[in-house]
Fold this sequence. Notes:
Layout: H1 8-17, H2 25-52, E1 68-80, E2 93-105, H3 120-123, H4 125-132
Antiparallel strand pairs: 1-2
Helix pairs in contact: 1-2
Amino acid sequence: MAGVVSSFDVAEVALAVVGEIDVSARQINKLTVEVGGQLASDRDERTREYVEQPLPRQATEVDVPPDLAAVFCDGGRMRTRQENHGPGVHGPHWREMKNAAFHRMQSQSFEEDPQIELPECFQNEAYVEKMVRGLKKQ
């Protein structure tokens, strides 16, 4: 709950109202720090193992190759704060994050076009022009 709401006090109220769990904001803070430390330690260990593995690294063989593979990339911004400064927010600032996901997908082949008519959104010239404007540079 502490990772979802804006403060430990709000987490305390939310847990009491929704989950009928009576736990203080201070205890939520302590548990969050403890669990967060364990997760960070596990992450650091996995990173260390990856970096220290012998070279050359071998690609993983896929048992059943996917019909179609897609990689989705996205970025965003998140609020962060300085570490080790006690309770409260110290030195808040925004950081950029980058995410990627690999998806196994299925595809179909058709003898004839399954959608003969142009979708309505592509019939609007202004919309299409706006959508492809950035492609001219490439």
